[in-house]
Design a protein that fits this description.
Number of strands of chain A: 11
Largest sheet of chain B: 6 strands, mixed
Number of helices of chain B: 0
Distance between the termini of chain B: 36 Å
Strand content of chain A: over 45%
Largest sheet of chain A: 7 strands, mixed
Distance between the termini of chain A: 37 Å
Structural class of chain A: mainly beta
Shape of chain B: globular
Helix content of chain B: under 10%
Number of strands of chain B: 11
Oligomer: heterodimer
Number of helices of chain A: 0
Chain lengths: 115, 112
């Protein structure tokens, strides 16, 4: 199956700092990438959808100025959490979908803790 | 009405039994259906997808789709303790870039 990687797998940062999370498709070209957030014992919440070379489409209630998404190439998307606060602590997961493919493949996730 | 509905469980089955996981969806135009398995603290893993009415089998897993009833299910035969996880149903609408909508997931516990 398709492989998606994420880096870092976990990060601890201080309140007010910014954190960048990378998502890479390793063996296919990801025309569309998705960013999800998952709080403990809750379901996945889609934050935004990004198509390569285009601006990301954010879900209602997600601050685009706080969660900056860049999908600069067919294999890399980044999520930057700006001015992080403790309530941003969560499990952030990206997924990727290839051209003319319906299946989404998930990265291993990044656990963010803001102190 | 939620777009994709699942019973959150937990669903407990004895080892060796058949586990039956169910999902209903509201968008009649939905075309693609997926089952993901998520272990605690890990990201989801795609285990099955189905596009046509009927059954699709892969090893111990069988996905069943009934578009008229807007119902999709996952059967796990010979359940093992390692199958204990949360199973997420996901539905994609028609169109190339329609997003996938996930259900809340059903927690399955296989009792040794």
């Amino acid at each position: 199956g398709a492989v998606v990687s994420q880096h870092p797998s976990w990060v601890i940062c201080k309140s007010g700092t910014s954190v960048k999370i990378e998502c890479r498709s390793l063996d296919f070209q990801a025309t569309t990438m998705f960013w999800y957030r998952q709080f403990p014992k809750q379901s996945l919440m889609l934050m935004a959808t990004s198509n390569e070379g285009s601006k990301a489409t954010y879900e209602q209630g997600v601050e685009k100025d706080k969660f900056l998404i860049n999908h600069a190439s067919l294999t890399l998307s980044t999520l930057t959490v700006t001015s992080a606060h403790p309530e941003d602590s969560s499990f952030y997961i990206c997924s990727a979908r290839g051209y003319s493919s319906y299946e989404q493949y998930f990265g291993p996730g990044t656990r963010l803790t803001v102190t | 009405q939620k777009e994709v509905e699942q019973n959150s469980g937990p669903l407990s089955v004895p080892e060796g039994a058949i586990a039956s996981l169910n999902c209903t969806y509201s968008d009649r135009g939905s075309q693609s259906f997926f089952w993901y398995r998520q272990y605690s603290g890990k990201s989801p893993e795609l285990i099955m997808f189905i596009y046509s009415n009927g059954d699709k089998e892969d090893g111990r897993f069988t996905a069943q789709l009934n578009k008229a009833s807007q119902y999709v299910s996952l059967l796990i035969r010979d359940s093992q303790p390692s199958d204990s996880a949360t199973y997420l149903c996901a539905v994609k609408g028609a169109g190339g870039y329609q997003k996938v909508t996930f259900g809340i997931g059903t927690k399955l516990q296989v009792i040794p």
